[in-house]
Task: structure prediction
Amino acid sequence: GGIRDPRRQEAPFLQHFLDWVHSPEGSTSVSGVVPGVKDTGFMELVAEVKKAQRSSQGAHEAWERFADTEGGGMRDPSRQQASFLREFLNRLETGELEQEEEDGDELEKLVAEVKKVQQSSMLAHRGWEQFCDEHGGGMRDPRRQQLDFLQMFLDEFASGTFGELVRDDRHKELVEEVRAFRRACAANQRRWDAYCDQEGRGIRDPNRHESSYLQSFLDS
Result:
């Protein structure tokens, strides 16, 4: 009748359940799912996973990463399916999980580089957005892009594809004019901040904007 509280069931019903889980059919059905009703083979897998975790810090982190990404965040091996545990052990043995860790480290490195480039100038920021829109399905979060995509952007940026911010004497003069304007009063600071939020992707450092952008603000 859908009642799962054993306290609300009759004694014969409970006994029937216990007889079933200890039978070959019941043991096979619940193995790896119900605590206390797991066969020897399953418990051996659990023991292997725990032993692997204790073998090295890398293996321990590999299990946590595997459980988080593919096991719903459940890190207790006794609460996973036998097939899940076998998959982990197989991938650990082949070194596949180590490669995933290396790829993850490389991804973090490239993500940091891309963000640094974006912050370097308005040109770079627009270049990233354009690159993502044209080649990355409009996905502008670097963490959600592939390694080769991030590296391709960095290579394109280094080659000057997206232009280069010219910081000549005129640019320096405009930067100082904007800074002096901001320092004059709080209202001026708010005006600059609002202009950057509306027209400059929220970048408020005048040194990261082109001369034409700074001149437009001063003329406004």
